[in-house]
Amino acid sequence: MTDIADNNKPASQPIETEKNDAETIPVAKQTAQTLTKRILELLFLLMFISTLLFFLLRLTGDPAAVLAGETGDQEQLELIRKQYGLDKPLIVQYGVFLYKLVQLDFGSSLANAQDALGLVFERLPTSFTLVIIAFTANLIISIPLGAWLGSRPDRTGRKLAATAVFVAQGIPGYITGLLLIQLFSVELGWLPSIGNQGILSWIMPATTLAAFQAPQVVRVISANVAEAMREDYIRTARANGAGFNTLLWRHALKNAMLGATALIGAQVSFLVGGSIITEVIFAWPGLGRLLVTSVQTLDFPVVQAAVFMIAIFVYFAITLTDIVFLFIDPRLRRQRA
Questions:
Q1: What is the 3-state secondary structure (H, E, C) of 300-324?
Q2: How many CB atoms lie within 10 A of CB 287?
Q3: Comparing 334 with 218, which gets the higher pLDDT?
Q4: Measured between alpha carbons, how far is residue 194 from residues 46, 54, 117, 176 in Å?
Q5: Between residues 149 and 309, which one has the greater pLDDT?
């Protein structure tokens, strides 16, 4: 009788919840918490990376020997070391470095005496624009292609396309770049292959960089869509008369993107790494090429400034991914009461 009485309670009566039930945190509050946490983590990360890089660079060689050249004598070496403070004990150099780092002062380039951070800022727009274009092209191609491959994986055409994507995943980025140069620059003469000579110069570097991680994104989205298409809610919607396009693009892909968002966010860090190789292949006047040249010439201040700014950019992309997650997945905004 007690059970019957309980079942007959008015529908308007609120149902009591346990104290441990999850409560949803407002998006704005959760976003502020995430940003605060990420900023603190970023400060620690920048200090750690800068310190580690400082000591690693000192193990790579003597910049004074590079600046003096093969004809430099001992007196010239000592003068150069004194000029740049390289004659001081390592711990003293590190203390001076930390003091200047707090002020975002990386010193002057050892190669041309220009401000190191200024040199980095000159190259930043070109490199990061290239990364953003490649990232956008990656998504425009990968998401529809992955959804198409995962929608009906048993079809012969889709199996062949999935095999091609799998093979493409194993092709290194520099091979793609060299093939594009050979075809569109050497053979056809359609596109410039060296430097930034206008809008046409962006096509091959951006394509090379986009192809660097596109196959992996396609495979993940394809697998997630294939799994989503087998869920009960898809069968229910199909039984209620929903069309194939509605099932795929409005339901299956939406849920598949929950699992793919983390990978897509991580693409930025991979693209930044891939841009270094791409810029070398196409002689691109960007930050990656500057970084490679600075490492080769032991230009410590420029290397430190470049890595510092790259770390900030990558961490910003990761933080933005976390915030997007908060909006698309309410489960992340739940906490125990």
A1: HHHHHHHHHHHHHHHHHHHHHHHHH
A2: 29
A3: 218
A4: 33, 33, 25, 15
A5: 309
Q: What is the SS3 assignment for 22?
A: strand
What are 336's strand-pairing partners? 22
CA-nearest of 297, 300, 288 to 116 is: 300
CATH classification of the domain holding 172: 1.10.3720.10
162 falls within a domain: yes
* 229-259 pLDDT tens trace: 877 777 787 777 777 777 777 778 777 777 6
**Boundaries of domain holding 253:** 115-329
Which tens digit of pLDDT belongs to each residue from 307-323?
Answer: 999 888 888 888 887 77
Rg, C-alpha atoms of the chain:
27
- Alpha carbons 94 and 253: distance in angstroms, whole number: 51
Q: How many CB atoms lie within 10 A of CB 58?
A: 16
Q: Is residue 300 part of a domain?
A: yes
Helix axes 300-328, 287-296, angle to 10 degrees: 140
Residue pair 306/290 in contact by the 8 Å Cβ criterion: yes
d(CA 292, CA 299): 10
Number of structural domains, the chain? 1
In a domain, 318, yes or no: yes
Helix, strand, coil shares, percent, the chain, to 5: 75, 0, 25
Terminal Cα distance for the chain, rounded: 33
Q: Which amino acid is at 58?
A: R
Q: Is residue 3 part of a domain?
A: no
User: Tell me, what's the pLDDT at 227?
Assistant: 83
Here the tokens at position 48 are 């750690």
Side-chain-facing half-sphere of 89: CA atoms under 13 Å: 3
- 225 vs 131: CA distance, rounded Å: 27
The b/e string for 211-230 (b: 16+ C-beta within 10 A; e otherwise) is: bbbbbbbbbbbbbbbbebbe
Distance CA 289, CA 299 (A): 13
> So what's the pLDDT on residue 337?
35
